[in-house]
Write a structure and sequence with these properties.
Largest sheet: 10 strands, antiparallel
Number of helices: 2
Radius of gyration: 20 Å
Order of helices and strands: HHEEEEEEEEEE
Structural class: mainly beta
Number of strands: 10
Length: about 170
């Protein structure tokens, strides 16, 4: 069928209409992006080490501390990640990532982009409203996933701003 459409497209003005039928050819593809726990499957395990870098609102400076990660897939829709802070164990925590049944949201934020890079790295971007620094804000989460690297980046945009800034980022490798 693709060959047939390509042949028809070369017939003249139908070219634009046929190109729009090809998902990768359409620059304004409005189809919903989706994600699943399968996208995170390669991350399972506890051999992840890295850093948490964050913007300290009091000092207006960035800080970084070492962290370790263990990720477990609990079900078709739920991931759990345990963060360890070596030397500051009182801050160790477990958090869950919930993917909606239809895969169009992660932790209640709408999946707005999904990109598979040539090296196999998957980038998932979600956006929604939330709170940061006890203020309403637009929140953008960027999940970067590969066999050997994983990051969760939180970008924030307060109501009085027009652009996002990076609030914090967990970056891991193994």
């Amino acid at each position: 069928m693709r060959i047939f459409l390509t042949t028809i497209c070369f017939a003249g003005s139908i070219l634009v209409a046929c190109a729009a039928n090809e998902p990768s050819a359409s620059p304004i593809n409005k189809a919903a992006f989706s994600a699943s726990t399968k996208d995170f499957h390669s991350l399972q395990g506890d051999e992840w080490v890295g850093n948490l870098s964050y913007l300290n609102y009091d000092s207006k400076e960035r800080s970084a501390i070492p962290v370790k990660l263990r990720l477990t897939i609990l079900s078709d829709q739920v991931l759990q990640y345990a963060i360890q802070y070596p030397g500051e164990e009182q801050y160790n925590s477990k958090q869950k990532i919930l993917i909606s049944r239809n895969g169009t949201s992660i932790d209640g934020y709408k999946l707005t982009a999904r990109e598979k890079k040539p090296d196999g790295t998957l980038v998932l971007i979600t956006e929604g409203t939330g709170r940061d620094d006890n203020r309403r804000a637009d929140i953008q989460m960027v999940y970067t996933i590969s066999e050997s690297e994983f990051s969760i980046r939180k970008n924030v945009r307060f109501r009085e701003n027009t652009t996002y800034f990076n609030r914090n980022e967990y970056s891991f490798s193994r």
